[in-house]
Design brief:
heterodimer, A: alpha+beta, seven-stranded mixed β-sheet, six-stranded antiparallel β-sheet, 21 helices, 22 strands, B: alpha/beta, Four Helix Bundle (Hemerythrin (Met), subunit A)
């Protein structure tokens, strides 16, 4: 029994990796400890949000599955940041936790080149720094050219509630006991991370009249570029907003040491951006209340997810805490909140194609690389699946640039900076976020998807047509003028825009802040899709800003092109600061551009490196 | 030529090299930061060259963060050259311009502003300009800019939080109104820095002044009196000063460079004509124009034309030869900066000096703290930042989305980092260090 690619783990990273590989016609095996747990959502019942929503669009543009799968499981959909600029808009969907995994499993099963096996991987077969396959806990060996590890939160997982600690994965799933120890033996640096999840409340025990209802948008959206919306606007399920009370804060403050975290039972490092409620109250002690959202988990069962109330307090405390919240005075907890700690590798040990530096043909993706979030995991899984396949095909890896995709930012951050806490994508991590928009994911990435072979000719042709139409219309609007006729000036006056004395191009008219593409539609007959109109508007309106960002990108790329030879011996580079030297050795950046982004490597160190390279060149 | 010359050697082998030509203690075995008495001798003919003190500073506690040896020898070109030659033949090489400071920068001892300030310190002509340069080395300017950077980063962070957490209502929202207030404050600080920079330029480079006026009104005499030097040829024949003649005045520690010009007058004499052209050109290049008029002559059309030309430049009108009969119609000169004088009379010159001090706030400058940008690179970067600030103000006025405006905030942040030398730019470093004179 042998495969081209083995994927270990059936979470969001594992599914994308396995699908990409199988769809690229490579014989693929996905190994999961529980087939019924495939693409499970153990934490929040939602996908997307700022940055993450754009990642889902990017996954779809490249030919991944998450977007399409999500579109079939929507309970509620919102376009966030509508009041802000187009660069930061992002979709966020409430997802049915029963439907999502069910559809994903069906999709996996349909792939002819993909086999699914239930089992627990204990060790790797390694021959002279090349991985050759895996070993199951019963000793079974399965050979493959490539192994992709997507172990999620399962390696040596501990579930913590108050002072109790139990070796277990999420939802009573079995933890992986030996894999991380075996990785350590190979030479991997293993770190312990922690995350947590809030309690689930029984819907019928909640008094929703005390809460503010949060409805979905009244416009239909999809994550996927190829899907038509299947949900109905009026059938969207609402979320609810409440605030913690004085009593909540008092209670938690007085019982802080009962939590696993403050009681000292946790070894792992938790994320700053997703703090537990006891963390929030301790760290922001001047705040009188915190927002909490109640989100539905599924139409097939009754649980309500209490977002913002993640805790590691003991169960009796959790009951008491819940009852201090408005509308939850009599609420029943269906599932208690818990903290979970698990083993991950330090991601500076992997390359930007997600292959490990230590072992050839071994790839890692998702939480094993120190990230958190379904979207971050799926994105890495997809890239690992793509690059593993490309490697088998003898092709160059696909490494997305920071200026091309949030996925590029995510992976570059991981391999360049590493992470000490579970890493989450944020818009603020993307210095070129004006280019990385929700609306242009296909324009940025679909061509890659096509070249890789995950996007078919039909979809690709549609993209080409779209690109052409956008370009044509932008050019046409540069020359197409409206004249200072009575009618036109009246129209401008009506829309609070200055009257014109000379002809003005549609292009320049659209640059006026008060004029939108909808105004243009009133004076010109345009029969273009909403998407294309949006592109035209954004590109004209923000042209100045967009070109500024491109200029910055150009400067960065200059340094990205200065390749550092992989056999460089930093000990031979005189005058490097010792911290810089250590970091450079550890991370072994491939380009000067990457070296510049390593914290602890200062401009003077870069100057020294440049001087060194010039000298070497001269030799 | 000083009584003592210092030869400084920096680098891994500095101590070893000097030890080869030093007679006294074994320098490779002495403690760091010690002064060692001995002789420099020629190892080939064993002849003593000079009696010296040798200072040893071992890495990293030295200016360059490398081993440094300083040989204090008797000043005198032949001795110094001989020792230098011995050092060079023993394995050292002559440093490139600014190399010591460059190494200090590259070894992380100083930031870019400090490196630039050291260059200023070397070139400082007066006590005040020395003080200014010194403050920068201490990092006061860096602190000022860092604070500005922090301010901007704060706004950026707030904008980003609003994007990443759109549904959290308890986080302060950046609105056009509060962004405008914050931006105005930053702009004010930047402009202040720029204005004060102008003062510091005056401290460092002095005031550039030019004396203009018709031939034979006494321009050269005034320059000579001010500088106590016979810089210009003074005769009674109009047009004696054919070319620009320069003199320097130290006004309470501020250097004033005054250029004397050929009298401005329509002329057929070719040499003089070139001089006149230069005078007209100079008017636009200086900080101060001193126009001299003759009390004994009526104002001509040329005078009126010149008065018009200088009205937008800081200027002083000197009415010379007050001892002679008044023929000049003062009513026609509507100007407050008039100094009446007679070149032979010292009082008039004092008035002139007083006027200069007044116009440039020189009395005030002395009391100020000097934290200002002091070179063209920094100044042009700050001006660039102010232009971007104006873009932001316009964007706020036209309601460009704040998250897009943030692109420009980032730009300013990058420019400020650039001033501090925190962004790597290949050419920049070469450019800066090539400006240094030999050694530190």
């Amino acid at each position: 029994m042998s495969y081209e690619i083995i994927v270990v783990g059936g979470g969001h990273a594992g599914c994308e990796a396995a699908l990409a590989s199988a769809r690229k016609k490579h014989k693929t095996l996905l190994i999961t400890s529980n087939i019924n747990n495939i693409s499970n959502m153990p934490c929040n019942p939602s996908l997307g949000g700022p940055a993450k929503g754009i990642v889902v669009r990017e996954i779809d543009a490249l030919g991944g599955e998450m977007g399409r799968n999500a579109d079939k499981a929507i309970l509620q959909m919102k376009m966030l940041n509508m009041a802000k600029g187009p660069a930061v808009r992002a979709l966020r969907a409430q997802i049915d936790k029963v439907v999502y995994p069910k559809i994903m499993l069906e999709t996996l099963k349909k792939e002819k080149k993909l086999h699914i096996l239930e089992g627990m991987v204990e060790d790797l077969i390694i021959d002279e720094n090349v991985v050759k396959g895996i070993i199951l806990e019963d000793g079974t060996k399965i050979k493959s050219n490539i192994v992709i590890l997507t172990t999620g939160t399962y390696m040596k997982a501990n579930i913590l509630i108050g002072s109790t600690k139990k070796r277990s994965g999420p939802n009573e799933e079995r933890a992986s006991l030996n894999l991380s120890d075996n990785l350590r033996k190979i030479g991997f640096e293993i770190q312990r991370l922690k995350t947590g999840t809030p309690p689930r409340i029984e819907k019928s025990s909640i008094d929703f009249s005390k809460m503010r209802e949060e409805k979905g948008d009244s416009i239909l959206y999809t994550f996927s570029h190829d899907m038509k919306p299947i949900y109905k606007i009026k059938e969207q399920k609402p979320c609810y907003l409440i605030h913690t009370t004085k009593n909540t804060h008092e209670l938690i403050k007085n019982n802080l040491e009962k939590s696993s975290m403050y009681g000292g039972y946790v070894e792992g490092i938790g994320p700053r951006y997703c703090p537990s409620i006891e963390d929030k109250i301790t760290r922001f002690s001047d705040k009188e209340s915190h927002q909490l959202f109640l989100e539905p988990e599924s139409i097939y069962y009754d649980d309500i997810y209490l977002q913002g109330f993640s805790t590691s307090m003991p169960i009796e405390m959790q009951e008491e805490m819940i009852h201090t919240l408005p509308g939850l005075e009599k609420a029943k907890i269906k599932k208690y909140a818990y903290a979970i700690e698990y083993d991950a590798i330090n991601p500076i040990q992997i390359k930007s194609n997600l292959e490990t530096k230590l072992i050839n043909n071994l790839y890692t993706a998702g939480q094993i690389n120190g990230t958190s979030g379904y979207e971050e995991a799926a994105a890495q899984g997809l890239m690992a699946g793509i690059n593993a396949s490309l490697s088998i095909e003898g092709r160059e890896p696909l490494v997305l640039k920071r200026s091309e995709a949030y996925i590029g930012v995510l992976i570059d951050d991981l391999v360049t900076k590493g992470t000490k806490e579970p890493y989450r994508l944020l818009t603020s991590r993307a210095e070129f976020r004006l280019l990385l928009r929700n609306d242009n994911a296909d324009l940025r990435l679909r061509e890659y998807g096509y070249n890789i072979g995950l996007i078919n000719k039909h979809k690709y042709n549609r993209l080409i047509r779209k690109k052409k139409e956008i370009d044509n219309y932008i050019n046409y609007f540069r020359t197409d003028k409206i004249n200072p006729t009575k009618e036109n000036n009246e129209f401008l006056r009506e829309n609070n825009s200055a009257e014109i004395k000379d002809g003005i191009s549609i292009y320049n008219l659209l640059k006026r802040p008060e004029i939108t593409i909808n105004h243009i539609k009133k004076i010109r007959k345009i029969t273009l899709s909403k998407e294309i109109l949006e592109q035209i508007e954004i590109n004209i309106k923000y042209e100045g800003y967009i070109s500024k960002v491109y200029k910055e990108v150009g400067q960065l790329i200059k340094y990205e092109k200065l390749i550092i030879p992989s056999n460089i011996n930093y000990d031979n580079v005189h005058n490097l600061a010792s911290e810089a030297k250590q970091k450079l050795k550890e991370i072994n950046p491939t380009s000067l551009g990457q070296a510049m982004r390593i914290s602890g490597v200062n401009p003077s160190d870069i100057a020294i490196l440049m001087i060194y390279f010039k000298k070497e060149e001269a030799k | 030529m000083g009584a003592i010359s210092i030869i400084r050697i920096s680098g891994d082998e500095a101590i070893e090299i000097v030890n080869k030509i030093f007679k006294g203690k074994d320098l490779t075995k002495v403690d760091t930061h010690t002064i060692n008495y001995g002789y420099i001798y020629n190892p080939y003919d064993k002849k003593i060259v000079d009696e010296v003190l040798v200072m040893i500073m071992k890495k990293p506690r030295s200016f360059t963060m490398e081993d440094i040896v300083e040989i204090n020898c008797h000043g005198g070109i032949s001795t110094t050259n001989k020792i230098l030659e011995l050092v060079l033949t023993s394995g050292a090489r002559l440093s490139e311009p600014g190399e010591f400071t460059k190494r200090a920068f590259l070894n992380g001892r100083i930031d870019l502003i400090k490196a630039e300030a050291i260059m200023d310190l070397i070139n400082a002509k007066t006590e005040m300009s020395r003080k200014l340069a010194f403050n920068q080395i201490e990092g006061k300017l860096s602190t000022l800019i860092r604070n500005l950077k922090k301010e901007i980063l704060g706004i950026m962070a707030n904008v980003e939080v609003n994007i990443d957490y759109p549904e959290y209502e308890d986080i302060e929202k950046i609105t056009y109104e509060n962004l405008k207030i914050k931006i105005e404050e930053i702009k004010k600080n930047m402009k202040k820095m720029l204005e004060e920079t102008e003062n510091s330029r005056i401290i460092k480079e002095g005031i550039k002044a030019v004396i203009i006026g018709k031939p034979n009104v006494g321009k050269s005499s005034i320059l000579n009196k001010l500088t106590d030097e016979e810089k210009a040829i003074v005769t009674d024949i109009p047009g004696t000063t054919r070319d620009v003649v320069e003199g320097t005045v130290n006004l309470d520690g501020i250097i004033i460079n005054i250029k004397d010009t050929a009298g401005i007058r329509e002329t057929k004499d070719i040499i003089e004509k070139i001089g006149v052209e230069r005078s007209k050109k100079l008017i636009n290049e200086v900080d101060l124009v001193i126009m001299v008029l003759n009390n004994n002559e009526e104002l001509t059309e040329e005078d009126m034309e010149l008065l018009d030309k200088i009205k937008n430049i800081t200027h002083i009108i000197v009415i010379n030869k007050v001892d002679l009969e008044n023929k000049l119609d003062k009513e026609k000169i509507s100007n407050s900066n008039i100094v009446m004088c007679n070149t032979i009379n010292i009082d008039g010159l004092d008035f002139l000096k007083q006027k200069i001090k007044e116009l440039f706030n020189l009395n005030k400058i002395d009391k100020q703290d000097f934290n200002y940008l002091s070179n063209a690179r920094q100044i042009s970067l700050l001006k660039e930042a102010i232009v971007v600030i104006s873009d932001i103000e316009e964007a706020i006025a036209t309601k460009i989305p704040i998250d897009i405006i943030e692109t420009d905030l980032r730009k300013i942040w990058l420019i400020l980092s650039d001033i501090l030398g925190e962004i790597y730019q290949e050419d920049l470093i070469n450019e800066i260090f090539s400006q240094f004179c030999l050694g530190k």
